[in-house]
Design goal:
This protein is mostly helical. It has a domain of about 45 residues. The chain has 17 helices and 6 strands. The strands form 2 sheets. It has a 3-stranded antiparallel β-sheet with strand order 1-2-3, with no helix packed on it. A hairpin with a 2-residue loop joins strand 5 and strand 6.
Length: about 425
Amino acid sequence: MPKDTLTVVDNRTGKQYELPVQDGTVRAIDLRQIKTSADDAGLMTYDPGFVNTAACRSAICYIDGDKGILRYRGYPIEQLAEKSTFLETAYLLLHGELPSAAELDAWVFNVTHHTIVHESIKKFIDGFHHDAHPMGMFVSAVAALSTFYPEAKHIQDETSRWNQIFRLIAKAPTLAAFAHRHSVGMPYAYPDNDLSYAGNFLNMMFKATEVKYTPNKMLEHALDVLFILHADHEQNCSTSAMRGVGSSHADPYSAMAAAAAALYGPLHGGANEEVLRMLREIGSKDHVPAYIERVKRGEFRLMGFGHRVYKNHDPRAKIIKRVADEVFDVTGKNPLIDIAVELERIALQDDYFVSRKLYPNVDFYSGIIYEAMKFPIDMFPVLFAIGRTPGWLAQWQEMLLDKEQRIARPRQVYTGAQKRDYLPIEKRG
């Protein structure tokens, strides 16, 4: 009769151990019993970058990278992008179930009526230099919010916790838009609670002299879909930062500032910006074959291709490609799209990329869409952060309610000097 165990033979000692296997995992702590002597601290795993280490159990986001599957709470991303809205998807991520009509109305009301920020936050943003990066301002402003809501530190109080969740989802677009307008020298545009979540963000970004801004419905819908596609993606770098800082029981503003700071890194939130720079460097679809050959020679990477998790097509990339057509119907065709389409076509016919499972990811087309919608390049990671906010908060809350979780404290393999004695400076060589 098969058993859900793993038998390990330690060839150093000849001893045999039987370790329980649950959900395809071995508990790392069970390895500690494997020792060579009584003085041995026990076996540890060494996994730089957490390539094959599960740090939590989560019911929020499911990814099958080999099959190109992404689901939020069991719902395929394709269905949510087609039929849901961003705020409904945010509710799903945080509550685990889709809302009733009454629940959705209450949820939207609570988010919508927390969009305003304290006037001192405006002054805080005013203090940044005119050429400060919007993402740096966003990270700082999110952290600053914790000083306006001292009750946020009571993370085990359910009412307080939900109030902070409402506030962060509501205020993220406000802070983002204020950061942008400060960087371009425009007066701040206040939230308009008559508009949708995406529509209100477009209002705060682009409102000029008109009394009331009316967003284009197609662009509003496209942005809402893009937010849905970025709403969660399991235990990536920024989500792990959110959980790690949150595990110390820091307030959610501080934890989210850390998550956003992780997203600020070019290896995480800056890929779509790099795609745009690459397409501009190529310059014409006629230059794509030569560029592909240079990539194959190892001169540089093909940006927007490949993913740490997906070894098949990124399901979000397929959806974004359709969204691009909707956007270009309004804005006119971005000339970079022809280069991108040709690059994708040639790469997917080349065994060099196919054998390495390098397929277009979510970043390949998103930057082209954002640019067509008149978002400046340095706002791209901020847009990512707005969309990811409900996912970060859902992961943070799940971590808090998980009885197995403790403060994050990875182990290390020490490779430094052994014990040595201090020498007075006059005796050192």
